[in-house]
Specification:
By secondary structure, the protein is α+β, with helices and mostly antiparallel strands. It is built from five helices and ten strands; from the N terminus they run αββββαβαβαββββα. Helix content is 36%, strand content 23%. The strands form two sheets. Strands 1-10-9-4-5-6-2-3 form an eight-stranded mixed β-sheet. The structure holds nickel (II) ion (NI).
Amino acid sequence: MNRQNTILLLAIAVIIIAGTGLAVPWLLSGAQPTSQSSGTALVGGPFELTDQNGKRVTDRDFRGKFMLVYFGYTFCPDVCPTELQSMTAAVSELGEDAKRVQPIFITIDPERDTVEQMRTYVSNFGAGLIGLTGSTEDIVKAAQAYRIYFAKVKDESSSAEYLMDHTSLVFLMDEKGQFRRVFSYGTDAETMAKGIREELEKS
Ligand code: NI
């Protein structure tokens, strides 16, 4: 390899590392802006899971619609129900455009979140929320595609056997399955609806 090629390769490596570095902090830190829009396609990807009616579904089944995607678990004491409430309220606020957006809840606790458990749980929320579960392998794959961190933690204070530590972000993917925006934990329904509307208008 000559010197010029070596320099070129080094430059490419630096760009790749810098790009990854930019994407990671906002995914991992709790202090992101309310919503962020960027051209990055680092988030999202194929998944194959089972819905709350026992039907196998893939990301391709949702093409043509925007997906609002959240990873969590039904035994979550507070964060997940709050986020799902905001997500579904945001979609409902879109009025006529609500049919262009599919809210999706993917469990990171497939051990306890069976199809039946998911069915009962999602029925508590509106906007046609879909609940997806699967084998541990299915879930790990989906979570990796969305850069979701999750881990079992022992809970001393509760009667539940364990809690799940997990990333709490709401992802907006477009009708082609491409990443558009991420809403940080605690974004209210109105702000989320405004962000979704802005992205819908671009399509
Ligand atoms: Ni949670």
